[in-house]
Amino acid sequence: MAPAAYRESYLATRVAAIIVALTFPSVEGQMPLRSSVARMAILLLFIAISATARAAGFVDSAERYVVLPDRIGRVMPAGPSAAVLIFVLAPEKLAGWSRPLSRGQRAYLPPKFARLPVVGELTGPNPTATADTVTRLHPDLIVDSGTVSPEAIALADAIQQQTGIPYVFLDGSTQSAPDMLGTLGAILGAGKRGQDLANRVRDAIDGLRGRLLITDATERPLAYYGRGGDGLETGLAGSQVMADFDQAGVVNVAARLGPGELTRVTREQIVAWNPAVIIAQERGFYDALQHAPAWRGLTAVANKRVYLAPVDPFGWIDQPAGINRIVGLSWLQSLFYPGVYEQDLRVVVREFYDSFYGVKLSDRQLEALVRTAEARPGETRRPIDVPLLGAEPVPFPNTNAPPGPLGRPPGRGGLGPSPTLPGVPAAPQ
């Protein structure tokens, strides 16, 4: 089935033809009936044209032209990052989660949305949804968020062509988050909320940037992020999972292995790197660092600078690599730059969960999140005299530019008419 905008355009064309036939018939007479029917046809044409005008043209972050339906009721996420993004902006329009939620995740979500079905994910190395899944769900829109790549563009084009459902791809990088929130909020009819959240994210990024400007380079620590139960998977230079580290100006010890996404390392490599701070994704690795003799020689272990990243309802570092990572920026600042971080982490976390997830944390929930994540009394916080190794934070967005609810995604296209773009399907014949 063709998207709504194409059907409406086709309808407008057909109604116009009817008007011509009724207004200028080949048979004389019957003037009163002809005039009455013509007036009705003109009214139908006005309705069809009005509906077509409301369907907006949009150029997404992958520079793909997408015609958006004038009414968006149900939105399918292409993957976990998009699911969080839709939930944050317009939870009532989220068709379902990309992956099953754990009991811990559901405890940190409003019950109504914690019970949403699992629709599967179209993206990733092991997709669990297909074009047939989309056809059965029949959402009004598909939203994807992540790194722009030829593979992502090809998938978006294929799903849209096979299903007729508009598929929008948005740049999921941290520095693009404010613009992404504003743009998608406008698309989903949540423009004010999108701009409010965009402003919060912009403030968080600006605050981090200001602290980095007054922090000496030698005070930026060598850090390791261990994923999985054994902690031997980590992110390479420029990887999505290390985006918060990069933004915080922290030196990722695994970056010396080169650019990429994820890689496996050995215990011997970690010992040789001797990071000053270690963050564990899972408790198994966190407990091993605390108790296993093999890790005792590390500087991070000796100085008690080992932390467990919170993951409920969504990760503060990744899991997924989405808008959920914004709270991780404040957390990393409190760990790495305690001398210049003046906010109360607990207050920041409460406000983030309330504003973004619609959850008012109980004291018990808050303590469960920060107990193994915050700096503890007695930690060693000596400046670390190491070269920065070029780990400057990535460029931040231009905060002086007017946001505009229908503005263009960062560095890419945007909402607005584009009647002559190639590749736009023709109306059905």
Please give a structural write-up.
With 429 residues, this protein is an alpha/beta fold. It has 3 domains: 4-55; 59-199, Nitrogenase molybdenum iron protein domain (Rossmann fold, 3-Layer(aba) Sandwich), CATH 3.40.50; 216-370, 3-Layer(aba) Sandwich (Rossmann fold). The chain is built from 16 helices and 11 strands. The strands form 4 sheets. It has a 4-stranded parallel sheet with strand order 8-6-10-11. The chain is globular. Residues 1-35, 37-54 and 380-429 have low confidence and may be disordered.
Write the layout of secondary structure elements.
Blueprint: H1 4-23, H2 31-54, E1 57-59, E2 65-67, E3 75-77, H3 80-89, H4 103-107, H5 111-114, H6 131-137, E4 141-146, H7 150-163, E5 167-171, H8 177-187, H9 191-213, E6 222-226, E7 233-235, H10 243-247, E8 251-252, E9 262-264, H11 267-273, E10 277-280, H12 283-291, H13 299-302, E11 306-308, H14 326-336, H15 345-357, H16 363-370
Parallel strand pairs: 3-4, 4-5, 6-8, 6-10, 10-11
Antiparallel strand pairs: 1-2, 7-9
Strand tally is 11
CATH topology of the largest domain: Rossmann fold
From the alpha carbons, calculate the radius of gyration and give it in angstroms.
26 Å
Q: Could you describe the largest sheet, including whether it forms a barrel?
A: 4 strands, parallel
Instruction: Assess the beta-strand content as a share of residues.
Output: 5-15%
Order of helices and strands: HHEEEHHHHEHEHHEEHEEHEHHEHHH
- What is the CATH-assigned architecture of the largest domain? 3-Layer(aba) Sandwich
Shape type: globular
Amino-to-carboxy terminus distance: 12 Å
